[in-house]
Each structure stands twice: as C-alpha cells, then as structure tokens.
Amino acid sequence: MVAVSSGEIIGAASGTIVDSLEQAPDLPGPVGLIRLAAVRADSRRMGVAFQLARAVGGDCLRRGASSLAALAWVYGGSGACPLAGVLERLGFSRRERLRDFYAGVGIGACPQCGCDSCSCSADVYVALSLSEETGTPLLVEDGG
Ligand SMILES: CC(C)(COP(=O)(O)OP(=O)(O)OC[C@H]1O[C@@H](n2cnc3c(N)ncnc32)[C@H](O)[C@@H]1OP(=O)(O)O)[C@@H](O)C(=O)NCCC(=O)NCCS
Predict the structure, then answer these.
(1) Range of 54's domain?
(2) Which of 1, 4, 10, 45 to mutate to test the pocket of ligand 1 (most atoms within 8 A of CB)?
(3) Does 30 sit behind a cis peptide bond, omega within 30 degrees of 0 on the bond before it?
(4) Is the dihedral of CA 105, 16, 86, 23 positive or negative?
(5) pLDDT at 16 over 60
(6) pLDDT by residue (tens digit) across 88-134?
(7) Which residue, 69, 91, 108, 120, has most beta carbons within 10 Å?
(8) How many distinct structural domains can be found in the chain?
(9) Candidate from 39, 75, 90, 97 with most ligand 1 atoms within 8 A of CB, to mutate
(10) Is 98 inside a domain boundary?
(11) Does 91 fall in a domain?
C-alpha cells in the first residue's frame, strides 16, 4: 500500500497473511502481519505511517485475518523503534524482541547500525483485543 501526495509517493507499507506466527502461537490464525512501513523524510510526523499501518491492518482483516501482528525495526545503533508509538496507538502491544532479525538482509552497510551484516533487532507487536460484536481485533477509528 502506498501513500500519495501531490502525485508523488511519500510512504509505503506492506503486509501479508500467514497461517500462524511462530513468535506468537497463541494468536488466532490467519494472522495479518504488517511487515514494514517507510515514509519519505520530508513527510514524517504527520500521521502518514499511522494511516498506512491502519489501512494495511484493516485490509488484512477484510481479507480474512483473525488477528494482527507487526514487525517493527529496532535500530541497532540507538535502540530506537520509530514505529512503536504508531503501533501502540493502533492498539498493538509489544510481545518480544527478535535479536539480529535483519542479519543477512540487504546489500552493504545498514544505515542505522552501520554493519554489513545488520545487527538491528525487530520487535513483535500483536493486537489481541477482540471486538465483542464482531470478534475481530480492534483498530482505532481515527488518527487521534
Ligand atoms: C517510522 C516511520 C515509518 C514513521 O512514519 P511517520 O509518517 O513519521 O509516522 P507518524 O507520523 O504516523 O507517527 C510518527 C510520530 O509523529 C507524531 N505525529 C503524527 N502526526 C503529527 C503531527 N501532525 N504533528 C506532530 N507530530 C505528529 C506521532 O505522534 C508519532 O510520534 P511518536 O513516534 O512519538 O509516537 C518513518 O519515521 C520512517 O520511514 N522511518 C524510516 C524507516 C523505518 O524506520 N521504518 C520502520 C520500519 S518497521
């Protein structure tokens, strides 16, 4: 999914639906997994990632996912996890940290940890709360 402003792509996010998630076997499957989100540097802190993550999660639910999870990049250098606030506002909670998750991914040095074999981690976020009416996970309704 992409975000477009004035005819230009300013952000993108992707998701997939998996039968189950190894890191959260208690999540009812199929699980909609938000894999990444990236927003152009000059368009950040305006809610674009929030809208993208909500749209990808919502799309997974419409396509049959029973629960949601997300992988959030944790920068090896600073330990920052810039997507954490977005996911928490959408109702996700952090489950566990996967060390060296991105090792062997990409070509050349990672822009955050600086390593050729990336030493950044990923945090697994899950959305477990279920709507009493629909039995589906809740995604907040507006950007707050
Ligand atoms: C992480 C990333 C996708 C976030 O994109 P974004 O569009 O800036 O995200 P949002 O605007 O939805 O939210 C980011 C912050 O801006 C704040 N914000 C949102 N709208 C705002 C506004 N109108 N005014 C001020 N701040 C605002 C949010 O509260 C949030 O704050 P928090 O991080 O303290 O919780 C972006 O920084 C990025 O592409 N980083 C590089 C790639 C990366 O690390 N991707 C994560 C991979 S999982």
Answers:
(1) 2-127
(2) 45
(3) yes
(4) negative
(5) yes
(6) 999 899 999 999 898 877 778 888 888 888 889 999 999 975 565 55
(7) 69
(8) 1
(9) 39
(10) yes
(11) yes
